[in-house]
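Recap from last week: sequence in, structure out.
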Amino acid sequence: MDTGEWYFVSDLHLNGDPGSRDVDGALPRFLANVVGASTSGRRNLVLLGDTFDLQGPVRQSTAAVAERLMCLADAHAGILDALATCVRSGIVLHVVGGNHDIELTRPAATALFTTLLGLEVGHPGVRFSPWVVHEPGIFYAEHGNQHHDLNRMPTVLSVRERGDGQEELPVPPLGAASRASPRCSGEGAAAVRLARSLRSTQRHERMAQTSWYQGLLDREAAGLGLSNQALADLAAMSRFGAARALAAIARRTVERRVGVERPGTYLAPRAAAIHRILTRHGLPAAAYVFGHNHRAERLDLPDAPAAVYLNAGTWCTEVRGRGPDQVDRQLFPFVRIAATPGGVDADLLFWRPFR
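Predicted structure tokens:
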């Protein structure tokens, strides 16, 4: 088992506006006073998806994504400076794609982002993942959208392919198409966009069963410390369902209009299922870390007393759940995992930057 310390933050949703929580002021302080002040020999910072809001309701060109990323980097220059300082001090930065910023893990975008940090392209201190970060025996982490019908991208690993454009990610996912306001585009245009996104996601779910995608899974498994079959089992556990997705869109529309928020989480049961798969392959983790649903949570997994589900919540204004950050918006959630020869310590913590 490797040793070291990992800090996870998720769902910053940097969109050019600091918002009422002043993430532009809070995150650099966190990086300097918590992550940077650690005495651990090997330190890691994981941005667990949806760091930026890059996607719109329609597919964007590479040039459009680059322009958007450069604008956001300029608007949040203090955060990028703080991230660069972390990397230069020896902290390894892991950037995981989410449903709002999967484009960040495309080859052209990874090169641009590294350059915007003031670092050389290919710097070993900056690593990108479109899906999973895994440390054998310690943790398994992903953004979480792959388990959500509205935001699942069945061929997510194709984001790394330069290719000839024949195998493209269904960008944006169904959820992005459903978020577009009918007032801006018209009811008819919104319905057409939703139908196209639905067909695209179904087509890519079929593509995920082909030998082409199996090859991408095999290649990814080698870098994650997982067997080919283990990663294939993980990829197959949350298949897209059109009926479920359409029902979720209808439910979400009604809930937003009446101001109802459903309590609880759907990711903890998925974490338990992942734990069962990894255990079956002889690779159980001590912690399963997610973001995506904006609910900072820590739950023990059923029938797995040695494993825990952790959700890093969000630093944006759309806090959900019943955690202390819902009541006090100057509390920011993060997950800390420390692995030593004596074992793994994993917990959800809250940090207050302005005292």
